[in-house]
């Protein structure tokens, strides 16, 4: 018996990679995700390679995973891929406490994020 296989939610010319539980706030991660939205995959990789942000290395790994998924699982042409979507979601928040003056304490929140990258194959236009 078993369950029926789920229908593919993406189009036939799309591939996806998800990186979950990234130890950075969604606001900071979105700055790097915004850097690659709408660009060709090769250009996005080079932009992330030379970015000064700490999280750019993690985003680059997720983008490489999406490119590998497109090539190996969906038989898409790597040279004609663009970053169709790169969206960031909130995850858990670790709560910690730090000692303050006069015997008080303050709360420290350490947020986590999710990153989803969707690549789309586009046809090259004749110049």
Automatic annotation (TrEMBL):
<dbReference type="InterPro" id="IPR018260">
    <property type="entry name" value="Ribosomal_uL22_CS"/>
</dbReference>
<keyword id="KW-0694">RNA-binding</keyword>
<comment type="similarity">
    <text>Belongs to the universal ribosomal protein uL22 family.</text>
</comment>
<dbReference type="InterPro" id="IPR036394">
    <property type="entry name" value="Ribosomal_uL22_sf"/>
</dbReference>
<dbReference type="InterPro" id="IPR047867">
    <property type="entry name" value="Ribosomal_uL22_bac/org-type"/>
</dbReference>
<comment type="function">
    <text>The globular domain of the protein is located near the polypeptide exit tunnel on the outside of the subunit, while an extended beta-hairpin is found that lines the wall of the exit tunnel in the center of the 70S ribosome.</text>
</comment>
<keyword id="KW-0687">Ribonucleoprotein</keyword>
<comment type="function">
    <text>This protein binds specifically to 23S rRNA; its binding is stimulated by other ribosomal proteins, e.g., L4, L17, and L20. It is important during the early stages of 50S assembly. It makes multiple contacts with different domains of the 23S rRNA in the assembled 50S subunit and ribosome.</text>
</comment>
<keyword id="KW-0689">Ribosomal protein</keyword>
<protein>
    <recommendedName>
        <fullName>Large ribosomal subunit protein uL22</fullName>
    </recommendedName>
</protein>
<comment type="subunit">
    <text>Part of the 50S ribosomal subunit.</text>
</comment>
<dbReference type="InterPro" id="IPR001063">
    <property type="entry name" value="Ribosomal_uL22"/>
</dbReference>
<dbReference type="InterPro" id="IPR005727">
    <property type="entry name" value="Ribosomal_uL22_bac/chlpt-type"/>
</dbReference>
<keyword id="KW-0699">rRNA-binding</keyword>
<dbReference type="Pfam" id="PF00237">
    <property type="entry name" value="Ribosomal_L22"/>
</dbReference>
<dbReference type="GO" id="GO:0005840">
    <property type="term" value="C:ribosome"/>
</dbReference>
């Amino acid at each position: 018996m078993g369950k029926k296989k789920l229908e593919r939610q993406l189009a036939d010319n799309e591939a996806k990679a998800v990186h979950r539980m990234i130890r950075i706030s969604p606001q900071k991660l979105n700055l790097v995700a915004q850097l690659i939205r709408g660009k060709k995959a090769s250009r996005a990789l080079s932009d992330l390679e030379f970015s000064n942000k700490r999280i750019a290395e993690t985003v680059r790994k997720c983008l490489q995973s999406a490119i590998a998924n497109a090539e190996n699982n969906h038989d898409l042409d790597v040279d004609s891929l663009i970053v169709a979507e790169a969206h960031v979601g909130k995850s858990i928040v670790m709560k910690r406490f730090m000692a303050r003056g006069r015997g008080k304490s303050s709360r420290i929140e350490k947020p986590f994020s999710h990153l989803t990258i969707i690549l789309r194959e586009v046809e090259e236009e004749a110049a």
